[in-house]
Design a protein that fits this description.
By secondary structure, the chain is mainly beta. It is 7% helix and 33% strand. The N terminus is likely disordered.
């Protein structure tokens, strides 16, 4: 697996005595084509042998001394896990839709993740044989994430949702192909998220048969994972405005995956900020939260300075995990058992 070029570890942690090496936020916002960016490019240490096997084994055990907490200017608790191979910062904010009558807002949870090796971006299913083609086994993402030593995790692409979804799509995980069926007509076309072996995100809009005949390679790059859901929300730092395609227009009854695109809802996304730098984002709806439409969610995420954002399953399937807290978004809401999840792990010794 390709290694990141060697460099010194400089991580921004307000409560820890470490040197700070950050790209200016304004420069990142300009690059991302947005304003008010809240995530910044961070240079991370490349350690020798700081990698995990390309399979479904758990990450390295987490150490209690690597957890810390602080309080931000709004009185919210900021939680950090940091070792020599990973840094995860869990934070929250309230988002009010600009230029609207939104006076309720929505709580946005963000897990800012920096890793030292692409292998630390991992997936897991609840099948005991790690068979991603099996639809029989589901489970709690929070309990599953704890079992694999996840530093943070988010719900996956609901590949096992049967007739509602994965009669079509590509299920390619950790370099293994489990299912590949793209619709010839385009009626069931989904946006694909392709993660290459360097950990970089690529998108295919409304993928149809022939768009990715060999999921193991994308534009000459070896592939680690392919996810089938979407839509792509942000690309090259710019908000994507056409989510639907010709036969997924709202006037035809909404998207075929019933994402309630034009209705405020609870949503989840996985994003890339830069090389080996990611952001997991969920937006709440329930209780004191208004929820966000797809386009509002995309605008919110773009304002955080990400380069690429990919929508995952929402509603009660939307789950953001952090150790010790379990599901952090709307914890009072009953968890929905799912087939899989995406997580980040430590490769520390």
């Amino acid at each position: 697996m390709k290694k990141m070029p060697g460099s010194a570890l400089f991580i921004r942690l307000a409560a820890l005595l470490l040197a700070v090496v950050l790209l200016p936020a304004a420069a990142l916002a300009e690059e991302a084509g947005s304003t008010g960016a809240e995530v910044e490019e961070i240079e991370v240490l490349s350690t020798s042998a700081a990698s995990l096997p390309l399979d479904f084994t758990p990450g390295s055990p987490l150490k209690p001394e690597n957890f810390s907490e602080s309080v931000d200017e709004n009185g919210n608790t900021v939680r950090v896990y940091q070792d020599s191979t990973i840094r995860v910062t869990l934070s929250e904010k309230r988002w009010f839709v600009p230029n609207s009558k939104d006076n309720k807002g929505s709580r946005i949870w963000m897990a800012d993740v920096v890793i030292s090796d692409p292998s630390q971006l991992r997936v897991a299913s609840f099948d005991p044989e790690h068979d991603f083609s099996s639809v029989k086994r589901t489970g709690s993402v929070a309990r599953g994430a704890e079992a694999v030593n996840a530093v943070t995790a988010i719900n996956g692409d609901s590949w096992g949702a049967g007739n509602e979804k994965h009669n079509f799509g590509i299920v390619y995980r950790q370099g293994q192909l489990f299912s590949s069926r793209l619709d010839d007509s385009g009626r069931y076309a989904m946006d694909l998220l392709v993660v290459d072996m360097d950990g970089n995100f690529h998108g295919i809009h409304a993928a149809k048969a022939g768009d990715l005949d060999d999921p193991s390679v994308f534009e000459g790059r070896p592939v680690m994972d392919v996810f089938s859901f979407g839509p792509i929300l942000v690309e090259n730092g710019q908000v994507v405005t056409d989510y639907f395609g010709t036969d997924r227009e709202p006037g035809a009854g909404g998207t075929w995956m019933k994402m309630l695109s034009d209705e405020p809802a609870q949503r989840a996304a996985i994003c890339q900020v830069g090389p080996l730098h990611y952001l997991l984002v969920t937006g709440e709806k329930y209780y004191e939260n208004r929820g966000l439409t797809l386009s509002e969610f995309a605008e919110c995420i773009a304002s955080l300075g990400v380069q690429f954002a990919y929508n995952l399953d929402g509603g009660q399937s939307s789950i953001l995990y952090y150790p010790g807290l379990g599901k952090v978004n709307v914890p009072k809401l009953k968890n929905r058992d799912l087939w899989d999840f995406i997580y980040f792990a430590s490769a520390g010794q």
